[in-house]
Amino acid sequence: MARELVLDYIISSINLYGIVPKNKVVEIYNMHNKEQIDIETINEISQEDLQAYGTNFVDIYGDYFVHESILEFNEFQDYLQKSKGKPYYIPSQEELLNYKDDLYFERNKEFEVLLKYLTDNIFEGDRDTAEGVCDDIQGICQHGFSVKQIFNLFNIRNIVFDSEDQVSEIMNLVKDLANNTRLWENNGHTPNELNERIEVPSLRESPKNPNQRTVGKKIGRNEPCPCGSGKKYKKCCLK
Fold first, then answer.
1. What's the angle, vertex CA 160, arms to CA 129 and CA 182, rounded to 5?
2. Residue 31 and residue 162: Cα distance in Å, rounded?
3. pTM for the complete prediction?
């Protein structure tokens, strides 16, 4: 058994899933490798092993590996509840191990379309600046999407729009990215992928009014707001 490879699987799984049971790491590892491991192998790898291997982002919490930010903000039960019953997205070994880099994310076609639009229409061909903004937008999509956060980012970056139509075009591209971003609360699935398997809210096209938000199905007043704020719908976007 290659101990370093097992550690790579633990670290990569944390960055993809946020929370992952130890036995799920065993299952995924065994799917990808001829040499099999068991839960005892995982338990032999202590917190000290992970820290010595050069990561400060993995914590052990009972039978789970947990990204330290989840414990830091006391969100373990919240994420566990949100992800409960949802299937795991299991990529190839090559793709999974890309997540060993905690800054890695899947640069999908939605990201590239948004990047091209911002480069051509907002930043006058400055792709590097546009890419920095897209990276920030992707981070917002990944860790609690809200329209308010997106517009706060635009304000911080001093982005000026030509018209309401341009605002609407950009927000539609942002929401396409949000619906195709891999989320911890979806066990690594994107909202669109999960929507194909079970009925979940997804973000529709943005109206010209950037403060107006709609979702893919009717939301009850007391249900969690689909914008990801953590508040009830009646106390957030319903207003």
1. 55
2. 51
3. 0.79
